[in-house]
Amino acid sequence: MFYRYYHKLVQQITHMNPEMIQQIRSRRILLGITQGDLSEISGVSVRTIKAIEKGTGNPTIDVLSRLLEAVGLKLTTVERVSNG
Fold first, then answer.
1. Is pTM, for the whole model, over 0.85?
2. 30: confidence class by pLDDT, cuts 50, 70, 90
3. What is the DSSP letter of 32?
4. Right CATH number for 2-70 from 3.90.1150.10, 3.30.70.20, 1.10.260.40, 3.40.50.2300?
5. Neighbours of 63 (CB within 10 A)
């Protein structure tokens, strides 16, 4: 059961959607911090942050969690249930 949930979570994160990327970038800009500032706060390299914001990065759960935490957001998932 845990493995199935974890696997689904990893799939959702590693296939980042444009909305999630936009949320991170928008929040960073709203806070008035540069990619360099975000790097210092989160411990994630500027190169990785740039790649994520461009949509070419493939962050681990740890990296994504650190970025989200640094801009005051949380990682949450909602499992969708189909009706048949």
1. no
2. very high
3. T
4. 1.10.260.40
5. 19
pLDDT digit string, tens, across residues 60-69: 888 888 999 9
Q: Where are the domains of the chain?
A: 2-70
Give the Cα separation of 65 and 51 in Å (integer).
Answer: 16
Reported residue count of the chain is: 84
Residue type present at position 6 = Y
Asked if 42 contacts 69 with a C-beta cutoff of 8 angstroms, the reply is: yes
Report the chain's terminal Cα–Cα distance, integer Å.
21
| DSSP assigned state of 35 | H
